[in-house]
What we know:
It is built from eight helices and no strands. By secondary structure, it is an all-alpha fold. Helix 1 packs antiparallel against helix 2 (about 30-45), helix 2 packs antiparallel against helix 5 (about 75-105) and helix 6 (about 110-135) packs antiparallel against helix 7 (about 140-165).
Amino acid sequence: WRQAGDIVMPAAFFLMLATVFAIAMQGRVTAEAGTGVIWVGALLSLFLASPSLYQQELRDGMLEQLFLQMQSFEIYVLIRTVLLCVLTGVPLLLCVPIGMMFLGLSWQVLPVLMPALLIGIAATCALMSFAASVMLGYGQAPLVRIGIVLPMCIPVVIFGVAASQENAQALGWLAAYFFLLLPVTVWAGSQAIRAQLAES
């Protein structure tokens, strides 16, 4: 990552969103509403995490070199997806207990909420990496990226919120959705980058 703001911004936005919601509700936040705020806030925060993903490498010519040298370009896309997940997801997860404190959620929710959020963040990062590869060469276009990712994030929110309420079946569906998304987004993202490099 070239800018520390790419790492700090999602976590800061998440805390700001949790604070604003808690103030607006004047401390009267139900467990279900608070869990929903945590999920929506976390996923919206990730939309800020990858505006320049792959763009700098394209400008530097690194993508073209990797394209010529690597037989499996999917490995590079997978590595970048994992880095996106680690560098943005870990700070975000560390901020979740603070957000829970702002919203007045019980600490008993934490052991159930964190594993579900971990899977949800990983799935969203895979989608963001795919959207960034599709938009490569067309600028950041945040609204277009959100339009690509948002419909596919709906199952993440639905299964994630249900899993955070101790629904083991929903957690299983969330994990299955992630394991379906990861290979598809990595393959499709690598193909989108190849197409962009072939045109340039």
